[in-house]
Amino acid sequence: MEEEARKLAQEGIIKKLISPGKGYLSTFPSGTKVIFHYRTSLCDGMVLDDSRTMGGQSKPMELILGKKFKLAVWERLVITMRQGEIAEFTCDTKHTVLYPLVSQSLRNISAGKDPLEGQKHCCGLAQIHSHHSLGHKDLDELQSNPQPLVFTIKLLEVLPPGTFQLDVWAMTDEQKLQVVPQIHEEGNMLFKKGLINQAAEKYYNGIACLKNLQMKEHPGDETWVKLDLMITPLLLNYCQCKLLQGQYYEVIEHCSALIFKYDDLECPTS
Q: In this structure, what DSSP letter does residue 154 have?
């Protein structure tokens, strides 16, 4: 433990154990899935995000190690923990510079929006230096003035590779294209059974999957348009769910976007 603490300190990370976990420390091979709750704070104690309350619900973070998550330090932190452990990590600015972008995506997800909404089509560091607003005052301030952050983490579960179904976001591009029709059909079956919340989640996952692929294409190009045509029926189904849930403003927002989506694009002619 002392040796690990020394290594972390050399990397600009100070760990404070709050509650010990149980069992042995996992070896955390690449492909391990870790599920944890997190709270992100400034060093003065101001809380930025808390997975137990974000979006009015408690939803833990899920990571698959080795998949190059944008905030790499989270992987470094959890591999020092035992299942059930709670620890506080104070991380130097070099580890936290991309947190505003990660937080924006997580907040979008908790609000039922596209995780990439509001982000420019460029790499994380380029977005930071562009001074593009993230739509949240606290994140804009953190983006313009990067600083150390405190992550309080409770490691809930450690799942070795091969013991869980691969999440859509962790798939290759080819796997994503293959799985979207299946996700769409699963959503339709849930809708027919009256399971509206679960159906909406399926449609949303399919949309997010295709949006991720679309971000790699130039707007208006043939491949971009093909992906967009795949998104449309999923988005309409998602709006039907939101209509039944009484989320009228979200329905109006999405349907308006569908109507005007090609106004600013020079689409290829047939």
A: E
Compute the distance between CA of residue 29 and CA of residue 26 in angstroms, rounded to an integer.
8
Query: In angstroms, rounded to a whole number, what is the distance separating the alpha carbons of residues 109 and 51?
Result: 11
Asked if residues 142 and 100 have their Cβ atoms less than 8 Å apart, the reply is yes
H-type alpha helices, the chain: 2-10, 72-78, 93-96, 99-110, 124-130, 137-144, 173-192, 196-214, 222-244, 248-260
pLDDT score of 28 more than 90: yes
User: How far is the C-alpha of 138 from the C-alpha of 11, rounded, in Å?
Assistant: 26
* Helix, strand, coil percent values for the chain (each to nearest 5): 45, 15, 35
CA-CA-CA-CA torsion for 214, 178, 67, 58, nearest 10 degrees? 80
User: CA-to-CA distance for 162 and 225, rounded, in angstroms?
Assistant: 35
CA–CA separation, 115 and 106 (whole Å) = 7
Supply the angle between the helices 222-244 and 196-214 in degrees, to the nearest 10: 160
**Residue 66 DSSP SS3:** coil
Q: Are 181 and 197 in contact (CB under 8 A)?
A: no
pLDDT digits (tens, 9 = 90+) for 141-186: 999 999 999 999 999 999 998 787 666 656 778 878 888 998 999 9
- pLDDT tens per residue, range 54-104: 878 888 999 989 888 889 999 999 999 999 999 999 999 999 999 999 999
Pick from 63, 39, 60: nearest CA to 49:
39
* 47 DSSP β-pair partners: 41
List 63's β-bridge partners, or say none.
Answer: 34
